[in-house]
Amino acid sequence: MPRIHSLASTAAVSALALGLALSTPAFAEETTDDENTIVVTGSAKIGEYGLDLTARDLTADPGDDFERYASGAWIDRTEIPADRPSVGSFYNLREDVTEQVNGLITEAPAGTQYGALYASFMNAEAIEKVGIAPLTRELAQVDALSDKSAFARYMGATYAKFGGTLFGAAPYADPDDPTTNALWMFSGGLGLPEKDYYFNSKFDEKRIAYYEYLVRTFRNIGEEDPRGAASRVMTFETYVAQLNWDVEQTRQIEKINNPMSSAELVAYAPGVDWAAFFDGHNIPPQDRIIVTDNTAIKAIAELFASTDLETLKLWQKARVTHQASPYLNARMVESRFRYTSALNGTSEQRARWKRAVDTIDGSLGELVGEAYVEEYFPKIAKTRMDELVKNLKLAMGDRIRENDWMTPETKQAALEKLARMDVMVGYPEEFRDYSQLPMSPDDLFGNMVRATRFNADYQMSDLGKPVDRSKWAMNPQTVNAYNGGLENKMVFPAGILQPPFFDAWADPAVNYGAIGVVIGHEISHGFDDQGRKIDADGAIRDWWTAQDAERFNAEAKKFGEQYAAFEVVPGSFINPDLTMGENIADLAGVLVWPSANGKARILAGQSNYEQPDKAFVQPAAVRGFELGDTLSSTGFTLPGSPSTTGPLASADVDGDGDLDLFVGGRTVAARYPEPADSFLYLNQNGELKPDPVNNPALKKLGLVSGAVFGDLDLDGDADLVLALEWGPVMVLRNDAGKFTDATEAFGLHRHQGWWNSVALGDFNGDGQLDIVAGNWGRNSKYEYSYTFEEPLRVTYSDFDKNGVVDIVEYHRDKLTGEMVPERGRSCSTRAMPFIGQRNESFEIFGSRTLEQVYGECLKEGKVLEANVLEHTVFLSSSTGQFTARPLPIEAQFAPVFGLNIADFNGDGKEDLFIAQNFFASQRETPRSDGGRGLLMLGDGAGMLEVVRGAESGLTIYGEQRGSAVSDFNLDGRVDLVVTQNGALTRLYRNRQAKPGLRVKVNAGTANPTGVGAQLRLVFTDGTKGAVRSITAGSGYWSQDSATQVLGYKKPVQYLEVRWPDGQITQKSVEKEAKEITVERDSKTVAR
What we know:
Blueprint: H1 7-14, E1 26-27, H2 66-77, H3 89-106, H4 113-122, H5 124-130, H6 133-143, H7 148-157, E2 167-173, E3 181-187, H8 204-220, H9 226-243, H10 247-250, H11 253-256, E4 259-260, H12 262-268, H13 274-280, E5 289-291, H14 294-306, H15 309-324, H16 330-344, H17 352-363, H18 365-376, H19 379-402, H20 408-419, E6 422-426, H21 444-460, E7 482-483, E8 489-493, H22 508-513, H23 515-525, H24 546-564, E9 567-569, E10 572-573, H25 576-579, E11 590-593, E12 600-606, E13 621-627, E14 631-639, E15 645-651, E16 660-665, E17 679-684, E18 687-690, H26 695-698, E19 703-710, E20 719-727, E21 729-735, E22 738-741, E23 753-754, E24 757-761, E25 770-774, E26 792-797, E27 806-812, E28 819-821, H27 825-831, H28 834-838, H29 842-847, H30 850-854, E29 862-866, E30 872-875, E31 883-886, E32 896-902, E33 911-916, E34 934-938, E35 944-947, H31 949-952, E36 959-966, E37 975-981, E38 983-988, E39 997-1002, E40 1014-1019, E41 1028-1029, E42 1044-1046, E43 1052-1058, E44 1064-1068, E45 1075-1079, E46 1084-1086
Parallel strand pairs: 3-5, 6-8, 39-45
Antiparallel strand pairs: 1-7, 2-3, 4-5, 7-8, 9-10, 11-12, 12-13, 13-14, 15-16, 16-17, 17-18, 19-20, 20-21, 20-23, 21-22, 24-25, 25-30, 26-27, 26-29, 27-28, 30-31, 32-33, 33-34, 34-35, 36-37, 37-38, 39-42, 40-41, 40-43, 43-44, 45-46
Helix pairs in contact: 3-17, 4-17, 6-15, 7-13, 8-9, 8-16, 9-15, 17-18, 19-20, 19-23
């Protein structure tokens, strides 16, 4: 996609860089670390042959260290200037070209457009006199936005003005018809360079620098509470980043080719007034929009809808100010530089005249480029470059023909693509006309406002028109090159065709070794892991045979593994995918288990947290009870973890038709938060035997608080989902009975929390299971002690050497940036008396950092982290990863334990009930009693709406724990039971819901309730309802009924049952049927 020559629009576009390493030009060299980076070592001074031989270190053996031999002397004598992040041939040549362009500008006749823009930039006195008055006028427009429709319109308009947008849009070649420009859309909205900067610990300092920059920004524009405003913007952007795709995903051309019309976008991503957005963007309704990171755009649209207008305005003010700052007074320029210098490592601002030249390059690029070419790129240079490129293309053709593993069909397609790859050298065939862009020598801000709109409108004018491959995405004076992706072309500007890369009079061998490397690099982009998916016409098409594609991918994987082993700097490894991404409670599970006599057997976990060494304390175990008129012990026992038994869950793990048992381990007695072992027991002819294959991997798995099985990837194997305290919601993927940790693959690894419970349901109606997990909520003393990027931490060990494990909670102070204890002096001293001795007074304690309070002893501790305390729904997506969405704010008032997914109102969409509260708090901590039990109704698209207790009838003031759903009175409505610690169990009968279809499933004698089966209603119009999974073990100390109640609003045609092994049965449903029973042998009984 052509680069936008608009400084105000650049931030939005670079949020994705139009997202694509393919659809955007693949540059030869960039300042960021990506897969397209190539570094050519050389010098700006040319020797006898066009090569600076003085760079060599002749004392080095080229066989041992060729870099040292070729460049050692240059490395020794070269220092990195303070205004640059690095130095090398590219940087040196850029500086030379900047000086050349500066000469052209300053020597130009008076009255030229770039002369006027240069004069306005250099007039620092006039800029200081104006101050931030122009910015204040821009910010007043933001303040005046009355609602989110107005905000959406303003956001769309930022394509041509200072400001930010959550959704970028620009024209580029249609991937299905590369002769026509379609509208491409992509997510944006981040102030840091990309998603990983918000979460990766290696960017801690950069995040802090950004936060402080936001504080300065809001202080400079007169915001009353600059730190509060900065925190709100940082939190909002973190949510946005959380929803963004990983950078690796945006490289996958097949994943970002998601066409839809304007109307389809409105239906797909509700939450934004798209009509207003596109009106502000001056874009009429479109038949085709390539919605690149589609699931991110959908999720961010929902986030936009749920975010208050004032927060959005603060975010927009930050974006406007950031983009406008380079053209304001010194205070604003310096504030921005303090932030950008933290990103790139420079310690000195670039000279003002250099920044002026950069501004002209961005605003009047081809105008000054025309003058540059006339002065510095003679015709002989273009002639010899054309010849050089031609020869290199011939050499590439020979390599393809001589390839010994490609089939003839793939070779022929590759040769055709190579032959049709256009090569553009020096400058475009026709230069742009800037005559309608007025420039003033004394109005820098106004110049930039006008230039921004002029260039943005020029770019948008391509929308819907035939692709003009003669247009360039770089200026002639740019020191770089690119492969045009869907345009199947290569561009080599005059700026890079200068010594040391190219010299028309140099020895040809030098040119082939210098610029030849760049040319070969750009040619190869047409055949790399993404370029190979684009054919000779520029269309996305797999032109490789299946055999060749498999071989290519296998070799690419080896190549990536080799690169992944390279440690660029200590602790920092190459990412080949990118370059080629104290709740201590007596928790125990309860589970219904089939028995031969037809009576229900209940398995219950028994825990011991306190005294593992005392004989009178019963060890942790799983015990069996039989439910008849009374609950009686069966004598059945299984050993639990050495100290604690956590949740229980069952499913057919090994695919033999009977149910196996998972026993979660919590914590070792008296050693919280040291995790206990978890176990898997396989059912072998009715006896539960420890699984020798999986159990080694389940040791010390984490503090397991919740467990449920479900087939997340629809491969016919029961995957295991776990809620971990001080850990993530973990997914163990089941592949033919063997578990592997797929937490990161599903995108869940970043969300470290105090997860208490977990359940599965299809909230967005896509036919795949979503995950909902109960956490600690946001109504606690910890609310301001952590952020997503800066977690709450706990370290544990026997710090005072008294034989008891101690815990120390701590966090990073937002003001000082230092780690500080979470607990006060009194509480800490009671646990470890030496704290009071080291810190004689509260004042001393309060003024010290964590290390100063505790000394060296903490270094021996093991550290756990939590960066999310919100109760969260993780929605499935087409990317294969889950998207995190916090439950509504009303759900965040207290910790959540019980979780129940059912269609409570009978509308065919999945709803959620949560059981809340925690009373056993520490002495200095108020108890968490803000919950009343909460019902939320789903909309079928992943959103949940809170039902007030006065409307739902659910007002439970006690310490709620286990909860379960069942149709107790067989009326086709879902009823609810909730237990409480130290209070009565509550049973709520559902009186008002539309009755649904009761469904019973029998998967055989060893699985009579169909555990692991997934149910889905199919309606007469061909649409389908939400998927319901039958689970055994979920939530907290409870299990829902296996008899399901499926709501519906449309006539039902049949019930689709996906059995635990992945086989599917379809059973018709009579019009007046109230209950249906489905047997694995396909018999059905309806009444």
